[in-house]
Design goal:
By secondary structure, this protein is mostly helical. Helix content is 62%, strand content 0%. It contains 17 helices and no strands. It has helices spanning 2-23, 61-73, 77-84, 91-110, 122-130, 135-152, 158-177, 183-195, 199-212, 217-227, 235-247, 258-265, 267-270, 280-295, 303-316, 320-330, 345-362. Helix 8 (183-195) runs antiparallel to helix 9. The model is unreliable at 1-28 and 33-37 (pLDDT under 50).
């Protein structure tokens, strides 16, 4: 009986002390919307969860306008003109190729077609049929096949390999149409990962990209996957690749953020370490990424990718004010890692945003104290 009374006393003590302990050192937790202690992201001008755009990491109004036109009219020519007017070696062109391919792939999944029914993404098929020598259309088609392989088949199966081999042939065709264009080779990086290219073959492919666009952030992110432990490398190889890219990054380049992506790719292996998100490896990678976004051009489209990942690490590291500084730049778009790994990217992003707001306010912050 005495033991029972002791346990009851301890339980009561926990009830009294838990709220106090949770407030120490800025510790926060999520509470239901409408709760008196709930911090409201809307007070900071943040978009409602249902308004978050999951298609892209950051704004590209020209792309959105053309995507809307193409999908509404099923006429590919707007996409063709936009890509033709986008600098060949730019990060933005790569993102636009991905967006058009992704739109066609999702259309096909939503409307697979049947007897008497036109399948979704028909505009891409017409594009390839009517303009077979157009380099932009060829690149979009190659990326479309890659996305189809990952979305509709399981790596290692015959179906997956068949689609990837078709994508590989499409990459070769796209490269022939535009010899100086790095994008067909960047698309092939995903093929190399899926088909398991031998390292020598992968490195030859990588050299073709370096010859055309040595500082291309999108290409480095795609190549990093190959070197990760879950694919064809190891944590050490992935870290070495990322750190080498950061070391040779020219001033203003976002390649300095590559180590943070390498850390993220290996979280399942190392996340059990106590205080990992305050550890030296994470702190150093976060510092490099913060330096990269602060020194990058404001119009660099890959800046959003880095900022989204920074939010993830800064929130987990309880660096609330720094997380808020990233959120005010990227809020509204969530089409980037780590949110896109979730079945509901907008909801996943909203959770981290709410934690950042709550942590910021628990440490004395408010909309008035946040720099705009």
């Amino acid at each position: 009986m005495e033991i029972l009374w002791v346990l009851m006393a301890l339980a009561m003590l926990c009830v009294v002390l838990l709220p106090v302990l949770r407030r120490r050192r800025g510790a926060v937790g999520l509470v239901p919307p409408g709760h008196p202690d709930a911090a409201d992201p809307a007070n900071y001008g943040f978009a409602l969860e249902e308004e978050l755009d999951i298609r892209m990491p950051g704004p590209d109004q020209d792309l959105l306008d053309v995507l809307d036109l193409v999908q509404r009219t099923q006429d590919y020519r707007g996409a063709q003109q936009l890509l033709a007017g986008t600098e060949t070696q730019s990060e933005r062109r790569w993102q636009r190729v991905q967006a058009f391919a992704g739109a066609a792939s999702l259309e096909l999944r939503q409307r697979p077609g049947g007897v008497g029914e036109t399948p979704g993404g028909q505009w891409l098929r017409v594009w390839r049929a009517e303009a077979p020598k157009d380099a932009g259309g060829a690149a979009v088609h190659a990326e479309f096949l890659v996305q189809q392989a990952w979305r509709t088949a399981t790596p290692g199966t015959d179906d997956f390999r068949i689609i990837m081999e078709e994508a590989r042939a499409a990459c070769s065709q796209a490269a022939l149409l535009a010899p100086g264009d790095p994008i067909p080779y960047i698309v092939e990086l995903s093929v190399a990962r899926g088909l398991g290219y031998p390292r020598e073959e992968f490195e030859q492919l990588w050299l073709k990209i370096l010859d055309r666009a040595p500082n291309h952030m999108g290409a480095h992110l795609a190549a990093l996957h190959y070197w990760c432990e879950k694919w064809h490398g190891s944590r050490d190889l992935a870290y070495s690749f990322a750190e080498a890219a950061a070391a040779r990054a020219p001033r203003g380049s976002l390649l300095a953020a590559m180590p943070l992506f390498a850390v993220f790719e290996h979280l399942p292996e190392v996340n059990l370490v106590s205080g990992f998100h305050q550890s030296e490896v994470v702190t150093k990678a976060v510092h490099g990424a913060l330096h990269a976004v602060h020194s990058a051009r404001p119009d660099d489209p890959t800046q959003a990718h880095v900022r989204h990942l920074l939010v993830f690490f800064l929130v987990r590291g309880e660096r609330w004010a720094e997380a808020m500084n990233q959120l005010i730049v990227i809020d509204g778009h969530v089409g980037a890692l780590p949110w896109t790994l979730s079945a509901d990217p907008a909801a996943e992003f909203a959770v981290y945003r709410a934690l950042a707001v709550a942590g910021y306010e628990a440490n004395g912050g408010s909309p008035a104290t946040l720099p705009q």
